[in-house]
Design goal:
By secondary structure, the protein is mostly helical. It has helices at about 5-10, 20-30, 40-60, 65-95, 95-100, 105-140, 145-185. The protein folds into 2 domains: about 5-100, Orthogonal Bundle (Helix Hairpins); about 105-185. The two termini are about 35 Å apart.
Length: about 190
């Protein structure tokens, strides 16, 4: 399989972020896990999705390499990791979906999701704090002739930081609600 095929297997555009890859994998794993989906091709689809996930995570960010290096990476993957990835996927396909969801493999996708949401929230709060303190310091020690630029910069940065903060809270709220729904299902 080529990289584009791995992205296609997960239903993603090429060069998706790690977060998008993990989110798409969780959806595909739930959709095709043989414990939930009893169709004959579900197990194969689950194995393909797991293989695609393993490859894309292992080789994410290597898109800026030349063709020769790219083909070397793909061949190395085929020789050493593809078989291991398929065996792991077959193991998870034989286990129940609940056991799969409780595995470290599946949980690692959720941990990245939570950590990225918290990281975004921290960045938004930091930008807001530095914007306010920076403006206060500029008011205390003004530079002659820059009062108008300082106010304009402050308003722009305040607006951007508030948007970041609101978006971070929306994602945090959605994550908490999803987690609560998943806990209730257990």
């Amino acid at each position: 399989m080529y990289v584009a095929e791995y992205y296609e297997t997960l239903g993603l555009p090429v060069n998706s972020s790690i977060e998008e890859i993990k989110r798409a994998y969780r959806k595909k794993a739930r959709l095709f896990h043989p414990d939930i989906n009893h169709s004959p091709e579900a197990k194969d689809q689950f194995i393909k999705a797991t293989e695609a996930y393993d490859f894309l995570i292992a080789n994410h960010g290597k898109g800026q390499i030349d063709d020769q290096e790219y083909f070397r990476i793909v061949e190395e993957w085929r020789k050493y990791r593809q078989d291991r990835s398929r065996k792991r996927a077959q193991y998870y396909a034989r286990s129940s979906y609940i056991q799969f969801k409780n595995s470290k493999y599946y949980k690692s996708t959720k941990i990245l999701n939570a950590s990225s949401i918290i990281f975004n929230l921290v960045i938004a709060v930091t930008v807001l704090i530095f914007t306010i303190f920076g403006y206060i310091l500029k008011l205390r020690d003004p530079v002659p002739g820059e009062e108008r630029r300082t106010l304009l910069s402050f308003i722009l940065l305040l607006f951007i930081s508030l948007i970041l903060l609101i978006v971070s809270f929306i994602y945090l709220k959605a994550f908490i609600e999803t987690s609560k729904k998943q806990r209730k299902k257990k």
